[in-house]
Amino acid sequence: MQKIQFLFFLGCTFFFTQTTWAQFNNGFGNNGRMSQMNQMNAGPSQQSAPKPPSNEETASRVMESLKEEMNLDALQEIAIKNILVQSLNAQGVILKKESSNESKSEDIKVISENTDRKILELLNPDQQELYKKIIAGGFKKKKKK
User: Fold this and answer.
1) Cα-atom radius of gyration of the chain, to the nearest Å?
2) What mean pLDDT comes out for the span 95-118?
3) Which residue, of 5, 6, 57, 89, is most buried by count of CB atoms within 10 Å of its CB?
4) Cα–Cα distance between 93 and 91 in angstroms, integer?
């Protein structure tokens, strides 16, 4: 009777040890938790998030809509695009600073007002009125075809 109990105990011990060991090593013979962490980190690192558009691209898209609506000449287009790129660069620097959201929003508002003032200096009176209407209504995103 003791021989049967001993063999039963030995069989159960062997069975549970093997299943536990296989689960711990993830079935690959690696170092348990580390292999699981390496497998989890391998997936997302292969996929990269889409990069946000550069300031140049953003300014170009804004200029496309402004050029169509306001009949800008080439000189105005280049000058306004440069002003927009400078403004976007400055806003990016402010957003990366470690300060309160209130101070960031105030700084961005000041930059925006300066940008609008510089752009208005380059426009003729008819274009100025049109620009003010566009700014008041906000820029509308156009869907890409």
Assistant:
1) 32
2) 90
3) 89
4) 5
